[in-house]
């Protein structure tokens, strides 16, 4: 589950700059999703895994 969340967060993080470069419609919404992905990556970096 943790790996799946990490993959989702990375995809969200990368889609924002891709939307800006490719000039997708509503690119600001993609940037908000990118910030959400960045926050999720940061949270996962500081929360320890349960063994």
Could you explain how this protein is built, in words?
The structure is a single chain. By secondary structure, the chain is mainly α. It is 80% helix and 0% strand. Helix 1 packs antiparallel against helix 2. It is elongated and about 45 Å long.
Topology:
Layout: H1 2-22, H2 27-46
Number of helices: 2
Rounded Rg: 12 Å
Question: What percentage of residues falls in helices of 4 or more residues?
Answer: over 70%
Give the N-terminus to C-terminus distance in angstroms: 14 Å
What is the mean predicted local confidence, pLDDT? 90
Could you say which overall geometry the principal axes of the C-alpha atoms support?
Answer: elongated
Give the H and E element order.
HH
Q: Which structural class best describes the helix and strand composition?
A: mainly alpha
Uncertain segments are none
Estimate the strand proportion.
under 5%
Could you give the count of β-strands? 0
Tell me about the biggest sheet? Answer: none
């Amino acid at each position: 589950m943790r790996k799946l969340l990490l993959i989702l967060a990375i995809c969200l993080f990368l889609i924002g700059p891709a939307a800006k470069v490719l000039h997708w419609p509503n690119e600001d919404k993609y940037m908000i999703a990118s910030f959400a992905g960045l926050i999720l990556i940061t949270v996962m970096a500081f929360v320890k895994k349960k063994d």
